Amino acid sequence: MLSQVYRSGFQAFRQRLLPWVQSTALSRSHRVQPSAIRHVRSWSNIPFITVPLSRTHGKSFAHRSELKHAKRIVVKLGSAVVTRGDECGLALGRLASIVEQVSVLQNQGREMMLVTSGAVAFGKQRLRHEILLSQSVRQALHSGQNQLKEMAIPVLEARACAAAGQSGLMALYEAMFTQYSICAAQILVTNLDFHDEQKRRNLNGTLHELLRMNIVPIVNTNDAVVPPAEPNSDLQGVISVKDNDSLAARLAVEMKTDLLIVLSDVEGLFDSPPGSDDAKLIDIFYPGDQQSVTFGTKSRVGMGGMEAKVKAALWALQGGTSVVIANGTHPKVSGHVITDIVEGKKVGTFFSEVKPAGPTVEQQGEMARAGGRMLATLEPEQRAEIIHHLADLLTDQRDEILLANKKDLEEAEGRLAAPLLKRLSLSTSKLNSLAIGLRQIAASSQDSVGRVLRRTRIAKNLELEQVTVPIGVLLVIFESRPDCLPQVAALAIASGNGLLLKGGKEATHSNRILHLLAQEALSIHGVKEAIQLVNTREEVEDLCRLDKMIDLIIPRGSSQLVRDIQKAAKGIPVMGHSEGICHMYVDSEASVDKATRLVRDSKCEYPAACNALETLLIHRDLLRTPLFDQIIDMLRVEQVKIHAGPKFASYLTFSPSEVKSLRTEYGDLELCIEVVDSVQEAIDHIHKYGSSHTDVIVTENEKTAEFFLQHVDSACVFWNASTRFSDGYRFGLGAEVGISTSRIHARGPVGLEGLLTTKWLLRGQDHVVSDFSEHGSLKYLHENLPVPQRNTN
């Protein structure tokens, strides 16, 4: 009777579960769309995608970026990942997400295997339910009433729980994988299956046959019969299967897998127990690094702790399998942790046998922080001396710089578009201009750090100062612009900031020599480490996650790069602009000659620049006038392709191609022309379609010009001047780290001042707040004190 009650309850549970699994699976965004299928083959009417993935097993991957080539993958799910927080029952949401990710990878043509815990937890839930039903019936029979007393549940033996839970766990996996047209098969093993040669060959053959048929093997230790683990029972050169960590490692090596992913309830391997004050996540772990790690206690559930995981990972690594240990329980990352790892993203701890030649990016961040703090303590004259020395090196080492740049240009030929090649190119005149700009920065840096902005006498002998200080560590990411490196380096030196530089690979040779020159200049005052060039294979997205090392990110490059960085940055402010959609409004009272010169310079002088003109707004009264004809003739001579805005197209019988979007940054000899009826309509158009970068009015009417200047809400607004003046060097800032369109901290071309923040200094003599209470002896004065005059020489 009781078994029937339980069976009906369990069937009802499964009926409730299946629709949830279906809706969860189908709602996920990782489903492979039909358009992504290259070609389909099938086995037993189960379609799946085949992707060209091939790799000769032997050596593990050296870098994370190579993990995308992994063909055969084992995913180990720890007990903490599979079970709920109460250790009784399964975490169904996490399991559904994991099954989905495994299915996506399987449908890409990879061979996926699961090593899973959870049978004990599932069985515990099942047996508790059975015991409660049994006790409730006995109590009802003996007491003769329906009231039930509190029932104590006895301690359940793990092997019995495993025996009761295996079938239910496998039924759950089958239900979930079915939603992705994937078949799963269960394999239960013990240590003997690996030590007995015949059993080991049988296991190997079974697994290979399942993989050949596109079936996902789900492997677990047979906890219903397995004996307790014996300490130090490993055979010579062979890891003993004591828990699912060692099982996963043994299985990975036995099956010659490319990647083993171990999911636990911590982010990865830390150098000390997670949660301790100084604990740091280890990004890459190398054999022999065990001495630098202090292991803590094991997780709340499961057989092994982190020490067991590391031992198993190193054994698998020695056998030619790459390993990543990561968190499979965090709600914000568990939905994509497996696919992120396979894509090479910086998730968890990656085990590698290949140590990089230089420091890791984390170590570079620490060096930049320490070097920046030393740089900030130098005298202003010493920082200026470093910058002057760097300016001299740019001209003295001109030939070496241009030779390195020539290598970059030769390698980029045919791969980069003409505008990008122009940005990549260095010349003698560019280097001379850079040197002049650096000397301007040196001159303006004399009182930048430590300048007093405000002084207040709070009370007698209690004085407050607000002073300028460096922001901390800057990360500047730039594309195809090697001349950006010395500019940004000089601004970081002048402002006392540590600096991490990440340049595009197309400028590798140029960036390398320019960075060496920057460090040579820094060496004259012993702060060489303050500026670091990231040469590792770090992805930009991974760099943007280093929120404990980086205080500000400044992207220099395409609008797509800026948007990607703004999206990827987690907890780190980004200063910059994603688009440079600059407008010029030619008013009805504009000068013919001025308008033509300004349009030509703004559009044609350097069309790839972010401050180049992209949209020309013409007052309606100027159509079919000499001014309009002269502008059009000039654009035709300069070979500028014209796109007509909707209103402009309506005035023409035969118009140019109508613009697809009025919010377009062309970055080339292309220009949108639109017609407006008034200065107010021009302002409204700019606010609707512009990017708050740089906008210009051309007019001889001062009142109209001032109206435009006051009402256009952009970082730079000009009257009768080219958009190309929106530049730190042309503004007299010496150089710029970029142009910001944000509304806090810094806006427009960002020079030295934009790389500083402030702190408050309070000097007192045994002052306490209670002295200023209603019955205290002191009163607040809040007197403004004179501020030392700034040195403008």
From TrEMBL:
<keyword id="KW-0067">ATP-binding</keyword>
<feature type="domain" description="Aldehyde dehydrogenase">
    <location>
        <begin position="361"/>
        <end position="623"/>
    </location>
</feature>
<dbReference type="InterPro" id="IPR001057">
    <property type="entry name" value="Glu/AcGlu_kinase"/>
</dbReference>
<keyword id="KW-0641">Proline biosynthesis</keyword>
<dbReference type="GO" id="GO:0005524">
    <property type="term" value="F:ATP binding"/>
</dbReference>
<feature type="domain" description="Aspartate/glutamate/uridylate kinase">
    <location>
        <begin position="71"/>
        <end position="327"/>
    </location>
</feature>
<dbReference type="InterPro" id="IPR005715">
    <property type="entry name" value="Glu_5kinase/COase_Synthase"/>
</dbReference>
<dbReference type="InterPro" id="IPR036393">
    <property type="entry name" value="AceGlu_kinase-like_sf"/>
</dbReference>
<dbReference type="GO" id="GO:0004349">
    <property type="term" value="F:glutamate 5-kinase activity"/>
</dbReference>
<keyword id="KW-0511">Multifunctional enzyme</keyword>
<dbReference type="InterPro" id="IPR001048">
    <property type="entry name" value="Asp/Glu/Uridylate_kinase"/>
</dbReference>
<keyword id="KW-0547">Nucleotide-binding</keyword>
<protein>
    <recommendedName>
        <fullName>Delta-1-pyrroline-5-carboxylate synthase</fullName>
        <ecNumber>2.7.2.11</ecNumber>
        <ecNumber>1.2.1.41</ecNumber>
    </recommendedName>
</protein>
<dbReference type="GO" id="GO:0005759">
    <property type="term" value="C:mitochondrial matrix"/>
</dbReference>
<dbReference type="InterPro" id="IPR020593">
    <property type="entry name" value="G-glutamylP_reductase_CS"/>
</dbReference>
<keyword id="KW-0418">Kinase</keyword>
<keyword id="KW-0521">NADP</keyword>
<keyword id="KW-0028">Amino-acid biosynthesis</keyword>
<dbReference type="InterPro" id="IPR016162">
    <property type="entry name" value="Ald_DH_N"/>
</dbReference>
<dbReference type="InterPro" id="IPR005766">
    <property type="entry name" value="P5_carboxy_syn"/>
</dbReference>
<dbReference type="InterPro" id="IPR016161">
    <property type="entry name" value="Ald_DH/histidinol_DH"/>
</dbReference>
<comment type="similarity">
    <text>In the C-terminal section; belongs to the gamma-glutamyl phosphate reductase family.</text>
</comment>
<dbReference type="InterPro" id="IPR015590">
    <property type="entry name" value="Aldehyde_DH_dom"/>
</dbReference>
<dbReference type="Pfam" id="PF00696">
    <property type="entry name" value="AA_kinase"/>
</dbReference>
<dbReference type="GO" id="GO:0004350">
    <property type="term" value="F:glutamate-5-semialdehyde dehydrogenase activity"/>
</dbReference>
<comment type="similarity">
    <text>In the N-terminal section; belongs to the glutamate 5-kinase family.</text>
</comment>
<comment type="pathway">
    <text>Amino-acid biosynthesis; L-proline biosynthesis; L-glutamate 5-semialdehyde from L-glutamate: step 2/2.</text>
</comment>
<comment type="subunit">
    <text>Can form homodimers/multimers.</text>
</comment>
<keyword id="KW-0560">Oxidoreductase</keyword>
<dbReference type="Pfam" id="PF00171">
    <property type="entry name" value="Aldedh"/>
</dbReference>
<keyword id="KW-0808">Transferase</keyword>
<dbReference type="InterPro" id="IPR000965">
    <property type="entry name" value="GPR_dom"/>
</dbReference>
<comment type="pathway">
    <text>Amino-acid biosynthesis; L-proline biosynthesis; L-glutamate 5-semialdehyde from L-glutamate: step 1/2.</text>
</comment>
<dbReference type="InterPro" id="IPR041744">
    <property type="entry name" value="G5K_ProBA"/>
</dbReference>
<keyword id="KW-0496">Mitochondrion</keyword>
<comment type="function">
    <text>Bifunctional enzyme that converts glutamate to glutamate 5-semialdehyde, an intermediate in the biosynthesis of proline, ornithine and arginine.</text>
</comment>
<dbReference type="InterPro" id="IPR016163">
    <property type="entry name" value="Ald_DH_C"/>
</dbReference>
<dbReference type="InterPro" id="IPR019797">
    <property type="entry name" value="Glutamate_5-kinase_CS"/>
</dbReference>
<dbReference type="GO" id="GO:0055129">
    <property type="term" value="P:L-proline biosynthetic process"/>
</dbReference>
